[in-house]
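S1.2 Input.
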Amino acid sequence: MVLESLLNPFKAKKKPWETFVAGALYATIALFLSFWVFQEYSSLIMVFLITLACVPFLYFTIKTEEELGATTISNVRLLREHGKVFLFLILLFLGFSLTLTFWYVFLPEKMVAILFSSQSQTIVNINNQISGNLANFDVFLKILLNNVRVLIFCILFAFLYGVGAIFILTWNASVIAAAMGNFIRKNLAHYATSAGFGKVAGYFHIFSIGLLRYSLHGIPEILAYFVGGLAGGIISVAVIKKDFLGEKRERIIFDSSELILIALGILFVAALLEVYVTPFLF
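S1.3 Output.
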């Protein structure tokens, strides 16, 4: 109950940066606790423990947004309220991913190999799927379809389990952290070998490039998954409260459909950034 009580959805709208700190704390505790207690399966247990800490907070958030969707007349006001939620959810996600990236870079190599074993294998599988002599449009299509598939899972998990989408989002945070951490770690080793340890600015430059390389398209992708997850969660809560079968049904369907369309649009932009912008810049 201690960790769950750190966040309050009403306070988070006013002080969204607190969710970043809470996300960093959740990730750190889950990482070390999973390694000490469930070392062999720590790469998955870590994701589960982070998710577990977020469940009460996200449940009340989705419940509040469902009530707003069922009662608020103005679509502009409703989207503005949803926007506040997306802001602190993105900061929560950044708290997860940046903290896990930090530990990936600075923990001993053997410990990192155990903690991120499943995530590293996932990265290898993704790279294998898009490798080869594919045109940019083919890569774009593969990435977009894969991201849409993840979005569908987020909506489905949120609908079936209420806050189930957070598990997929936390998993994605750990995969992105492994990718960023691996990139930073490799380049730090190369830079240390060629330039020595004296040029501190160079090390900060590598950190900046590593974060920007994956954040440029990663943050829009995760935002889209949060939007889709919120849509699925709103429908789930509406079904439980029987609002979905009453006179509020049309507003709930409209609100959820609008969120899903927004999520698809964001994923389209994110795929364009990943295929055509990120390789050009990095």
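S1.4 Remarks. The chain is about 85% helix and 0% strand.
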